[in-house]
């Protein structure tokens, strides 16, 4: 409880570590995760720091691990999960072994990959050659008669030009990508002026790209031509269109023999490829068992050297000096980590920690657990608390789900939230292992305890409203009695039940179920929920204003209690607190059982009209036999309250600036006297000691320092705050009416879904009615979950968040701090997993 009430006390420490123990000491500190280091080398370029070589070395190791991991994922091998057994940072000897192992593995993988690409390229060429030989069978009718010569076979023949001049045809065979065939055919026709005869055949099965493995659709072609010049042109076009040319004998027997040889070579190459794949799989399977551990070890090692670059080397080059923020409760833990780090390397000179004084504002650290972390994140989203400022998250654990439930009050919908939240809480260890759940799932899972509490409070408010999927439960029996006979009930569409004769006692818990049948249900619920919203709103704001006293007391700003808190609380209580009092007084005083006419329900004055008349000093003439006011001397009391409230405005406006002006003169006079003798009190060679961080009037809790600020700006600043508080008190009170508005909207949507959807299925009969009811019930469940639970729940959540951020926290919370970000291996690894 003390940890949540305000942020923990922090200490600025100097750390003196021997160079040989620096790595292990920082490693131990990273495991504890309770130290935030400061950069002592701000003016030093990142590439000129002491451990930049080690950081680059770690980058190279990470590159090798990423390459191996890509190859493993390419083969579909699943990496083991090591969340329960995370390795520690490696020592220098392990780093050398790990580097050698990764170097060997990467070289082997690169060599295997290159050999595989080469063999797959050869396999692709042989496959294309086989397809060419097989598909060109139909291109030749009688090769022996035509006596066709392949351009490749006759390339060196002396009589080929003479033969072609005598009328013999030459041809070129090859394979081209299917999408380029039409452009290729058109280009051949243009360069030959129609003197090339092209035959083609599409391959049914796609081929695989050796480098990427993607399927490639190709087409076999044979181009017949005459003349050496035309042959050269065709070859140039084939080269331009990336077509692969292959030798194709014109003789049928020669082609058959060549196909047999190609098939034999393909079988041999397929066997070699299979053996290569098996060897690659064995290597990757062996590496995959240790790869996650290696990755974590390298990340930790890199984080250690990054942190060591924040240290400064002393002039003797024999000691590393670092500065860090440490929670005072964790100082023994840090000292033990330093001693363990020195002992791990057998250092004879121990490392030590020195707490130093500072005027700098420390970071804000609120120690949380898995229950409070979600609520703390809601507060930090508005702004990180100033150092040692009162933490609203402690009270938000209760007020947030309660105000949500006021707007979401339904027993059935609350049970859905309870079941969902309880499932995530009970199975949290299993669900926490889900890596790729998405951002929405991470938000839901991170707020699982918030969802559970919101559901529990919604169940409670649903019981108070007596609302279960827009229906009521008659558990204790209605306290309203029907005195009409049967014929009167059957012949009259509506009857009145006067409370003085029909109401017998009070329903034990929540609303009486008879209101579910009443025609004036909405009128009654509107009045009830509207007043309830104002009551909760004023109580919430009063609590927020009272919390400012805790901050003023802690930071020793006692003058602010009288100059800020007292006028603020008086203004709030004497106006809006009085309005809440009138609501309770009206409920207690006016009832149907009394015989005194001014206290009957018909004479009950409107609280809203009475409050308006109070602010405007007006009167409203009462009805005959009634009184304008609820009690004697109420008019005088109201005038007194308004006058005191008006006095509070200049009190807030001028009190603090005048106090600052008066204290500034005294402080300036005291400083001038102290400066005459202050330096004389120091001995030769002494320097003034730095003062600790003070939380006083000038520098506490995010408070603004007024030392050098001119008085004109102070007056303007205070005028803005005063106007903001006076106007916001009115607007914030009205803002809490959203509790009533959303509660009414939720109840009406639930009732519409019941009457317009589910009730239709309940009226059906027979087999068709059963099927229809099944389908309609499914649609009703879908609409209930999508609209009433998800959309309405999100709307109520956002409105509740606004009530806390604006209406509640603005009364005392400044949120001008900065978060404590310790050097923690766990935080580093979790952050990289989220990315």
TrEMBL record:
Q: Which Pfam families match?
A: V_ATPase_I (PF01496)
Report residue spans for region: Disordered: 687-707
GO BP: vacuolar acidification
Localization in the cell: Membrane
What GO molecular function annotations does the UniProt record carry, in alphabetical order?
Answer: ATPase binding; proton-transporting ATPase activity, rotational mechanism
Q: Which residues form a coiled coil?
A: 95-122
Q: What is its main location?
A: membrane
Bilayer topology annotation: Multi-pass membrane protein
TM ranges are 400-426, 447-465, 534-553, 565-587, 637-654, 770-791
Per UniProt, the ranges with Gly residues bias are: 693-703
Q: Which UniProt keywords apply?
A: Coiled coil, Hydrogen ion transport, Ion transport, Membrane, Transmembrane, Transmembrane helix, Transport
Q: Which domain of life is it from?
A: Eukaryota
**Cellular component GO terms, alphabetical:** plasma membrane; vacuolar proton-transporting V-type ATPase, V0 domain
Q: What the protein does?
A: Essential component of the vacuolar proton pump (V-ATPase), a multimeric enzyme that catalyzes the translocation of protons across the membranes. Required for assembly and activity of the V-ATPase.
Q: Which family does it belong to?
A: Belongs to the V-ATPase 116 kDa subunit family.
Name-wise, this protein is V-type proton ATPase subunit a
């Amino acid at each position: 409880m003390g940890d949540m009430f305000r942020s923990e006390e922090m200490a600025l420490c100097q750390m003196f570590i021997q160079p040989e123990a620096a790595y292990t000491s920082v490693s131990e500190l990273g495991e504890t995760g309770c130290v935030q280091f400061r950069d002592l080398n701000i003016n030093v370029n990142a590439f000129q720091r002491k451990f930049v070589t080690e950081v680059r070395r770690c980058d190279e190791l990470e590159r090798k691990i990423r390459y191996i991991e890509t190859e493993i994922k390419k083969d579909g091998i699943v990496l083991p999960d090591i969340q329960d057994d995370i390795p520690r940072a490696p020592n220098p000897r392990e780093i050398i072994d790990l580097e050698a192992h990764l170097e060997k593995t990467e070289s082997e993988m690169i060599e295997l990959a290159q050999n595989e690409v080469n063999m797959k390229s050869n396999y692709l060429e042989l496959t294309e050659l086989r397809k060419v030989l097989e598909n060109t069978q139909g291109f030749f009718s009688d090769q022996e008669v035509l006596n066709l010569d392949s351009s490749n076979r006759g390339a060196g023949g002396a009589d080929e030009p003479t033969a072609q001049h005598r009328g013999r045809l030459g041809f070129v065979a090859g394979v081209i990508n299917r999408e380029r065939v039409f452009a290729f055919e058109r280009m051949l026709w243009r360069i030959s002026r129609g003197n090339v005869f092209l035959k083609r055949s599409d391959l049914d099965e796609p081929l695989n790209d050796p480098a990427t493995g993607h399927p490639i659709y190709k087409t076999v072609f044979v181009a017949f031509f005459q003349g050496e010049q035309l042959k050269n042109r065709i070859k140039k076009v084939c080269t331009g269109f990336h077509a692969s040319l292959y030798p194709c004998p014109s003789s049928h027997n020669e082609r058959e023999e060549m196909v047999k040889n190609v098939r034999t070579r393909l079988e041999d190459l397929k066997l070699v490829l299979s053996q290569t794949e098996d060897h690659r799989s064995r290597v990757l399977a062996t590496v995959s068992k240790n790869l996650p551990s290696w990755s974590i070890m390298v990340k930790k090692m890199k984080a250690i050297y990054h942190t060591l670059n924040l240290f400064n080397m002393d002039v003797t080059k024999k000691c590393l000096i670092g500065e860090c923020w440490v929670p005072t409760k964790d100082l023994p833990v840090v000292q033990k980590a330093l001693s363990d780090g020195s002992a791990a390397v057998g250092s004879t000179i121990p490392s030590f920690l020195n707490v130093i004084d500072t005027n700098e504002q420390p970071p804000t650290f609120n120690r949380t657990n898995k229950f409070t972390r979600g609520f703390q994140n809601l507060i930090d989203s508005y702004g990180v608390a100033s150092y040692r400022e009162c933490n609203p998250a402690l009270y938000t654990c209760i007020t947030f789900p309660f105000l949500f439930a006021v707007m979401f009050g339904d027993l059935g919908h609350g049970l859905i939230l309870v079941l969902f939240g309880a499932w995530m809480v009970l199975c949290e260890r299993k669900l926490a292992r889900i890596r790729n759940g998405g951002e929405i799932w991470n938000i839901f899972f991170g707020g699982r305890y918030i969802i559970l509490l919101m559901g529990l409070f919604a169940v409670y408010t649903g019981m108070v409203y007596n609302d279960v999927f827009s229906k009521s439960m008659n558990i204790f029996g209605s306290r309203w009695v029907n005195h009409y006979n049967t014929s009167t009930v059957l012949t009259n569409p509506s009857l009145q039940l006067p409370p003085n004769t029909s109401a017998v006692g009070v329903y034990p818990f929540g609303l009486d179920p008879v209101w579910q049948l009443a025609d004036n249900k909405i009128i009654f619920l509107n009045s009830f929920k509207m007043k309830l919203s104002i009551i909760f709103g004023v109580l919430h704001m009063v609590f927020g204003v009272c919390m400012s006293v805790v901050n003023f007391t802690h930071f020793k700003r006692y003058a602010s209690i009288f100059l800020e808190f007292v006028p603020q609380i008086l203004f709030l209580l004497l106006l809006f607190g009085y309005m809440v009092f009138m609501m309770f007084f009206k409920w207690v005083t006016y009832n149907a059982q009394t015989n005194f006419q001014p206290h009957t329900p018909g004479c009950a004055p409107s609280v809203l009209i009475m409050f308006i008349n109070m602010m405007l000093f007006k009167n409203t003439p009462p009805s005959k036999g009634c009184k304008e006011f609820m009690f004697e001397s109420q008019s005088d009391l109201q005038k007194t309250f308004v006058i005191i409230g008006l006095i509070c405005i200049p009190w807030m406006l001028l009190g603090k600036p005048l106090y600052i002006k008066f204290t500034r003169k005294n402080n300036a006079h005291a400083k001038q006297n102290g400066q005459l003798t202050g330096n004389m009190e120091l001995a030769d060679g002494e320097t003034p000691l730095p003062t600790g961080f003070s939380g006083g009037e000038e520098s506490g809790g995010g408070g603004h320092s007024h030392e050098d600020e001119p008085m004109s700006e102070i007056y303007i600043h205070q005028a803005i705050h005063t106007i903001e508080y006076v106007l916001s008190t009115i607007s914030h009170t009205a803002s809490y009416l959203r509790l009533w508005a959303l509660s009414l909207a939720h109840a009406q949507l639930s009732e519409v879904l019941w009457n317009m959807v589910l009730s239709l299925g309940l009226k059906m009969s027979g087999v068709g009615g059963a099927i229809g009811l099944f389908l309609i019930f499914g649609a009703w469940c879908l609409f209930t979950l999508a609209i009433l639970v998800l959309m309405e729940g999100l709307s109520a959540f956002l409105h509740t968040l606004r009530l806390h951020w604006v209406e509640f926290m603005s009364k005392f919370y400044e949120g001008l701090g900065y978060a404590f970000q310790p050097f923690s291996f766990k935080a580093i690894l979790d952050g990289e997993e989220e990315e």
